[in-house]
Amino acid sequence: MRIVNATLTAPPPAPGSEQHVALDFANSDLALTAGRLDLLATPADATRWLVDRGLAPEGAEVYEYCTGRLRELRSRLRVLLAARVDGAVPPAEAVDALNAALTATSAAALLRWDEPDGPYRAPAHPADQVAVHAMAVIAADAAELLTGPDAARLAACTASPCIRFLVRTHAARHWCSTRCGDRVRAARAYARRSKAEAAS
């Protein structure tokens, strides 16, 4: 059972999220100090998340079944990212889930030409397949993230209770946001003060 606190706000995107929609997708389940925030908690949330990232057109609607499929793909993707960070071999079902999403539909946006707007690109899928198309795009980006040049810089945020992943911008980066870094530094300062007080 997912526990979601709708009054929480998400931190800024983790480093690498703007380049990799798959990383942003994996990080749409957040563990914050004040509670859990799932950006795909409801069909309306999932629809808004997809529309905001250009993965679904305005006016699209994702239903509960597809919202569950999105959350399942996210769960499998998180397993793959954790395995890559840890240098471990992920379970075959996580790889299979990503491959199934990757091959479910063409992720290519086709050329369309309408009056009076002229040429534009649009996905080659019917309206009821919005989630399938979005998952194919996410899976393609995930495959690139896991095998491309950013893979070696993948990391998990080390600030508890955060569960986000990031692409490190430099070797010393261990946190996904300033908020997480400040929390870790504050905890270390408190521990040092407590130790000093106990010693005196």
Q: Indicate the CATH class.
A: Mainly Alpha
State the separation between the terminal residues, measured CA to CA. Answer: 47 Å
Give the strand order of the largest sheet, numbering strands 1, 2, ... along the chain: 1-2
Report the uncertain regions.
none
List the helices and strands and how they pair.
Elements: H1 21-26, E1 29-32, E2 35-38, H2 43-52, H3 64-86, H4 92-103, E3 109-114, E4 118-123, H5 130-147, E5 154-156, E6 165-167, H6 178-199
Antiparallel strand pairs: 1-2, 3-4, 5-6
How is this structure best described in words?
There is one protein chain. 46% of the residues lie in helices and 13% in strands. It has 200 residues and is of the alpha+beta class. The chain has a single domain, classed as Jann2411-like domain (Jann2411-like fold), CATH 1.10.3300.10. The protein is elongated. It starts with 20 loop residues before the first helix and ends with a helix. The model has no long low-confidence stretch (mean pLDDT 87).
Task: Please describe the structure with a list of short key phrases separated by commas or semicolons.
200 residues, alpha+beta, Jann2411-like fold, 6 helices
Outline:
With 200 residues, the chain is an alpha+beta fold. The protein has helices at residues 21-26, 43-52, 64-86, 92-103, 130-147, 178-199, and strands at 29-32, 35-38, 109-114, 118-123, 154-156, 165-167.
